[in-house]
Amino acid sequence: MTTAPPRGFFAPASSTAPPRRRWRLALSFWLLQYRRTWRGSILSTFVLPTLYLASLGIGLGGLVTQHLGNHAALLGSTSYLRFVAPGVLCASAMQIGINEGSWPVMGAIRWQRTYHAQLATPLRIVEVLDGHLLWITIKIGASCATFVAIAAAFGAQPSVKAILEVLVATVLGMAFATPMVALSAHVKNDAAFSTLNRLVIVPLFLFSGTFFPVSELPRPLRVLARLTPLENGVALCRSLALGAGFSVGQLWPLLYLVALVIVGHHLARRSLTARLVQ
Q1: 125 within domain boundaries
Q2: Which pLDDT tens digit goes with each residue over 145-166?
Q3: Which helix (H) or strand (E) holds 114?
Q4: Would you say 176 and 97 are in contact if contact means Cβ atoms under 8 Å apart?
Q5: What angle do CA 4, 6, 11 make, to 5 degrees?
Q6: What pLDDT, in 10s, does the model give residues 215-274?
Q7: Best label site of 108, 124, 146, 215, fewest CB within 10 Å?
Q8: Is 44 within a domain?
Q9: Within-domain flag for 158
Q10: Is residue 2 part of a domain?
Q11: Which domain holds residue 231?
Q12: Count of the separate structural domains present in the chain
């Protein structure tokens, strides 16, 4: 019995495929791989966000809200649950972007040599890269949408504008993922990832407005924090989640994140080209 050939995203690579569509062939690999491994992501996608919101927003948040007193304005005159949810969303998007841009990329270069196999087809480096980056975008966006839905169930999203958080958080995640791909293609082993996590990622996670207002930091740290991608994403998502009206001034953080994605894409393309074309 014969079976129909794969169609759409899962069609095999062809030398006659239009170059502008070949990135879909690289994307199809990651989609197919996820179809076999999606069960392993249930914990990080559904269970962990629920535990985060329950412990931080309801458990710790109850104590914070109870003892705020005259300092309630620091949280925007809202509950700690509603304050912290956008911060955790952005921090999660950052972490997913970094994770997806690190070990999977190094594995595709050094261990499974997925990129080498794809480059043995008519695919070019830019198409291999774009297909993988689009998959990372889809994964970040799906995880962020799930988090927002869970937060809404907890009552942490009082505004319909919170839906825009998914877009902002996804761009934020890619602002970290693209330069991470460039780093992963440049370094020789994964020891650099642990160093980066200790010296960069953890401080960003703690001091970029995720759990408390940046205004409470000393002035030098406050200025430094407001230059980081995570703080810009947190501030914008928090504004959207709390129902503030969208203004022209809010475009700047978003444009800043988009610019980081573009620069990161350029660096990733250069690093992959230098690593794979020898």
Answers
A1: yes
A2: 988 888 888 777 666 677 788 9
A3: helix 114-119
A4: yes
A5: 145
A6: 888 888 889 988 999 999 999 998 888 776 566 777 889 999 999 999 999 999 999 999
A7: 215
A8: no
A9: yes
A10: no
A11: 77-276
A12: 1
